[in-house]
Amino acid sequence: MTISTIAETAVHAAADAAGANSADAQPPMPAPESVSRFEELMQQPLAAPDNDAAQHAGNHLVDAIRHQDGQMEAALEQVATLSAHSASLSPTQQIAAAAQVSLNLSLAQFDFQTKMAVVSATKSSAETLMKNQ
Questions:
Q1: For the chain, which end, N or C, has fewer CB atoms within 10 Å of the first or last residue's CB respectively?
Q2: What pTM was computed for the model?
Q3: Mean predicted lDDT score pLDDT of the chain
């Protein structure tokens, strides 16, 4: 038994690869059942994508956008209402209403930023997955 060095192994592997790639060498033929199975698969019509799944995913996106839009519109309506009625409110009521409006705007902005972070992370994950394939 002999122990070959890495250099010897590399030389033998390169020689084997060069011999396999020569014009004289014929690649082995696949089994006849593999050939017939491949031909059957190539004759089948292409499968059309399921539009129902894509439409369902699109509905979730539309619902999320409508929800975010509704939150922002409600917060902006509260700002307009507070501005219109601030003269009739006492100072403590004005402070309470301003705090409520500020809280609602902050919640809407936080919700939007959270959704954007999820979208960015998903996009980054998809890009990494595609890059690794």
A1: N
A2: 0.48
A3: 79
Domain that holds residue 74: 63-125
Q: Within a domain: residue 80?
A: yes
Question: Shortest CA distance to 117 belongs to which of 89, 109, 59, 98?
Answer: 109
CA–centroid distance for 123 within its chain: 4
Helices 91-132 and 51-85, axial angle in degrees (round to 10): 160
Assign 3-class secondary structure to 79-133: HHHHHHHHHHCCHHHHHHHHHHHHHHHHHHHHHHHHHHHHHHHHHHHHHHHHHHC
CA 129 to chain centre: 9
The model's confidence at residue 40, banded by pLDDT at 50, 70 and 90, is confident
Q: What tokens does 64 get?
A: 């999320």
Count how many domains the chain has.
1
Residue 2 in any domain: the answer is: no
Distance separating alpha carbons of residues 61 and 68, to the nearest angstrom: 11
Per-residue model confidence as pLDDT tens digits over 42-85: 888 776 656 665 566 667 778 888 888 888 888 889 889 988 98
